[in-house]
Design goal:
By secondary structure, this protein is mostly beta strands. It is built from two helices and 17 strands.
């Protein structure tokens, strides 16, 4: 096959694969307490877990809760919004409720309740990399170690907090001298933290 023809074929196959991947994910997905982890998590056939819904959601997309339920812990590797406004998206983690694993991502969490429990969850939210995180109407309760743990030495994590409560938990930045122990039985509105200022 002529070289130019081979190059054209390669480009066509690459574009086809890209379109296939893009078509496999949606800008908005849904979870429900009666859902199943199959398909594309549309409103008529929602999924059962945040983690599966994330796999069907485009970067910078949104996961919505159709009703209140325990949708499990989630490891986040892309920019995304999880919005359970009008319902309550709960999770009872065995170790970590929400872990954000890819640096530089922008994550918005709304209407979540992370219930660690006295003998289970260690961290409510774990940030091993720098991210931009906003919390609104989020409750983090009874984590055995930290409610929000920042555990990275490169970059600055910005956390915007609105109407969020931490009970029996604290926010800790492991790689700085910042220990915010006042976050025991804590409720604030419209407060911003970052690693450089804490």
């Amino acid at each position: 096959m002529h070289l130019l023809a081979r190059i054209a074929l390669f480009i066509a196959l690459a574009l086809s694969a890209t379109v296939t991947v893009a078509l496999g994910q949606s800008e908005r997905t849904y979870v429900s307490n009666t859902g199943t982890d199959a398909g594309i998590c549309g409103p008529g056939a929602p999924c059962a877990s945040f983690q599966y819904a994330l796999s069907q959601t485009e970067s910078k997309g949104e996961i919505n809760c159709l009703n209140t339920g325990d949708f499990g812990s989630i490891s986040i590797d892309k920019s995304v919004t999880i919005d359970c406004t009008g319902a309550i998206g709960t999770m009872t983690p065995s170790t970590i409720g929400v872990g954000i694993t890819a640096p530089g991502r922008v994550v918005h969490l709304r209407g979540l309740s992370i219930n660690c429990g006295p003998s289970s969850g260690i961290f409510g939210i774990s940030l091993p990399v720098y991210v931009t995180l906003s919390l609104d109407d989020v409750a983090i309760r009874n984590c055995r170690q930290q409610g929000i743990l920042e555990d990275h030495s490169i970059g600055t994590t910005a956390i915007s907090i609105g109407q969020t409560i931490l009970v029996g938990a604290q926010r800790r930045n492991k790689n700085s001298k910042c220990w915010k122990r006042e976050l025991i039985d804590w409720q604030h509105k419209d407060i911003e933290f970052d690693r450089q200022r804490c």
